[in-house]
Protein 1
Amino acid sequence: MHIDIDKDVCIGAGQCALTAPDVFTQDDDGYSALLPGHEDGGGSPLVREAARACPVSAITVSETVS
């Protein structure tokens, strides 16, 4: 899976970090960021729910093709 955070759209609501704290965090400016080593979601079942929880739809989750 591939996770993309549109930094131009993110408003720093933090819903992603609350929903999937094992994958998302907030950077020093308060915007959404992926935790190091979790660029692929780390297998967390909550990644898609975190994307849906974003109030401005700044997070997209897509399947990677191997």
Note: The chain is about 20% helix and 20% strand.
Protein 2
Amino acid sequence: MAAAAVAGKRTAQKLSSIAQSWAVDPFRPNLQLKTFLESLAAHPRLTPQAVTAARALRDNDMSKKYPLPDKMLHPPSMPHHYDRLVEAFEKSAQGIGRPWWKIFFNVW
């Protein structure tokens, strides 16, 4: 029984370290995945599979294992759509908005 308690504590410590390294979401300051993972680390029935899943999410393993092809990221109809979307997301996180005239004339 003591070995199970030590393994459970070690699993909780791993999940806590994953939670500490999780990036803060600037768009939802009251709802952070980091807080959820920290509270999950205290759960008595925490499994190693949950810790592995959290680590895979943090390290973006699926995106590395199954990368999107360039044809999907740059469709012929709107080749810069996703690049602009990422740029807008990053600028919005910094508090930089598009000027009204760019919105009005649909200029990027």
Note: Residues 2-20 form the longest helix (19 residues).
Protein 3
Amino acid sequence: MASVQSTSSPQFDDFEPDPTLTNDDLRPTKPDQRTFSGWEMSSLWVGLVVGVPTYYLAGSLVDLGMAWWQGIATIVAANLITLVPLVLTGHPGTRYGISFPVLARSSFGIRGAHIPTLLRALVGCGWYGIETWIGGEAIYLLLPNAIKQSQVSHSLPWLGTSPLEFACFIVFWLAQLTVVWKGMDGIRELEKYSAPVLIVLTSCLLIWAYVNAGGFGHMLSISSRLSNAEFWSLFFPSLTANISFWATLSLNIPDFTRYAKSQNDQIIGQVGLPIFMGAFTFVGLAVTSSTEVIFGRVISNPIQLLGQIGGVSTTVLAIIGISLATITTNIAANVVAPANALVNLSPSKFTFRSGALLTALLGIAFQPWRLLKSSESFVYTWLVGYSALLGPIGGIILADYYLIQGAKLSVKDLYTSSPHGDYYYSGGYNLAAMAALVVGIVPVIPGFLEKVGILNAVPDLFGVIYNNAWFFSFFSAGLVYWTLSCLKGVQKTSQPMDPLLPTSP
């Protein structure tokens, strides 16, 4: 892996790329665009981790019966596992300066790449709507009571929520667009300068809880309510759910690592994920357990907690903190991938800006207020369910890049629709990848249908597969793809071009 910035770039301008496969957003990044240092990559993860859903994670496991340390250990273990595909998938982004949709062309085919990128985009749009609703909820809960008790706060059946809540949702929706409209530079600046603010505000919340609760004795006294067998039956679906939490980013991380200065920067920056996740889930668990001592009842929602603390200064800080936490998570995790997927779908019609705008509009179409109110187990069903879509994509891409391609790509062939190109396969589709994708997804469907109540009962085997959906789909699809590719044989028709970063001696 390279550890220094190259002064040269792929000879992208030495050939004419197919205009239907490229525009300024899809071209490999140039050396002067490689501005992400290790600290800025770490700042990205701080912004991603610090948010309302992460705050809930450990607390939800404790509510299900785990001891506090078991909940945190489960989350850290999941993120250590997630770190592996993150770093491995990030490598081609840094080496060749290419985004996730372009990388997917090498394994799925020039046209087949639309399938994995649009699946990733669909999940991103759903999450965008959910996170934006959370941000709007923060605005709503912190409004004066006089406004919240007015006529506009009454729910409308046809809308599914109140006009006031919907208005707060739209205000937060518009606020995010001001950052998105500046493109990747705006996102980088937001993440860089938000990280220290979020760390300070999180520390203040933790100190407040410690002082007012007289320490964390109550949290430390929480022991497991589960037998050994019950723990393991809960551990594996919880591990899968927490891996799925970042399964989205583990696919499209090249969208960010393509801007990294070096492989060392992208690796060092990403190592912070399990550290930040462990630290912030500890904060969520410690503060939540402290509320029982301070207020006499458990307040698991940080937005409601900040409203309960009261005071003008607290309200202002709460609005700043929750807005920053939600925006930094939402934009980086749920805008970049769908926007790039739409650009890849039609480079002549979409730019990053227009793709991001359509992503935001689709986030509204998902009606997240209905999704969030549909089931108490929404997060687990949502997370584990979509891991069956994203897991096999990750397995196929990594098997192709490392086992089939040998970490060597032809940049020229990633941007040509010529039948003689390395990644044209059969009419632009790699049938081996398509078959492997189906093999990874189909066995998970029965367990999912039982989970959502469509099927009354399925054989235990399908329940086990569903509880381990990411693991099953990732490894089964990767193995099937590797086997089919070896049986078919991979014919290289051109020499790989020089990477953006040179290979170390």
Note: The two ends are 9 Å apart (CA to CA).
Protein 4
Amino acid sequence: MTMLTTTSSSSSVPQDNAVSFTATRRFYDDANFPKGFRRCGDFTQKEAELLEAHGVAMQALAAGSLLPRTSDEQRFVEVIKGLQAATSPLEKLWIKYTTLALGRPFYAVVGTNLVRPSEADAYLDVLDSDIADEDEEPKAEEKA
């Protein structure tokens, strides 16, 4: 009796014999890190190296354009979705990268008034008119 077995090469079941987080090109984010990961000052040399080597695969997994092939990649996707806490260096690194890519928060000094760029011109016009009025007042007093 012969047993017939079938295998599917495009299965979404993780295959642990595959290498995790493989990419054919290096990962760069010139929009958020124009000097590169190594020179921006936010990542260690090891983190920058890992991000450049595996960032393309991590980005594709996070976006859902690549299906997980290994249990490590499946866990990475669950961490990105918030189902599990980050424990591996790549999981922690991707969370750090995405947090920094969103931008740093701006903290103002207490008591300062922040002026929006759209309001800046009107604000400067008011200041200019106030300064011009102060310059004219002493001249008027001199004539009197």
Note: Helices lie at 45-63, 71-80, 89-101, 117-143.
